[in-house]
């Protein structure tokens, strides 16, 4: 099978390209990072340097079986224009390329952040109505979902929660760095739980989505590790494994949110809009439980997460 992967020089895209190549598929990775692209080529994977936010043409292939759109700007903070270019314009260009390649399946990687609310949401299903977006990332990913779902491509949308694993530079490393430098807020006595997803489980879900029946066109699937873990335990265990002791101090949610929104206001009015030390979304993640219902993915994709957090953490921090 010939499969195109956008965001191939990113964390998820790189893992996916190498896994698909290992399965014997012909893989074409698309990405902006030339050095990481060369590393993919060294592993026998075709690569084309392309910025989907600016480009809508492809030189390497004239047809393919599937297109996995994993390219995105994923962050709790940034310029609205940057999110729009990467997540909205980038998705439109990915759809255009996939249409030119006459793919039979387009897999769009989205995020559960599109459904985030400042309240506990346990076993949230894919068909829950989406709230007003919590930030520009969530807003542009929701737009991108709609674009993919309403295109003339045969599309599946995956919403993996909290992807981590070896090579991740965002999720666990960010938490560990925060634990190194400050006492972290303990909100609602640490009641919040969430479900993370090891990158290998996300890759397995994508493979299942590529092979899923054509009749699944337009459907959305939640993906996670299926294990609800207290957020402060995630921070503590990851920090401990990295040789850091995480320290917490009780803080009222209202006070943490007020401080975050004040910090956001100040940052928005500074040159370059630098990321504030804390965001309202970050407070929400620490304060409120967010877990996903995996019923549809288990039943229809045959998805069954294989890597629990203890094993995932071991793999992530292995040298």
TrEMBL record:
InterPro entries: Epimerase_deHydtase, Lipid_A_modif_metabolic_enz, NAD(P)-bd_dom_sf. Gene3D superfamilies: NAD(P)-binding Rossmann-like Domain. It comes from the Bacteria. Transmembrane segments: none annotated. Residues 3-223 form the NAD-dependent epimerase/dehydratase domain. PANTHER family: BIFUNCTIONAL POLYMYXIN RESISTANCE PROTEIN ARNA (PTHR43245), DEHYDROGENASE (PTHR43245:SF24). This is 3-beta hydroxysteroid dehydrogenase. It comes from Asticcacaulis endophyticus.
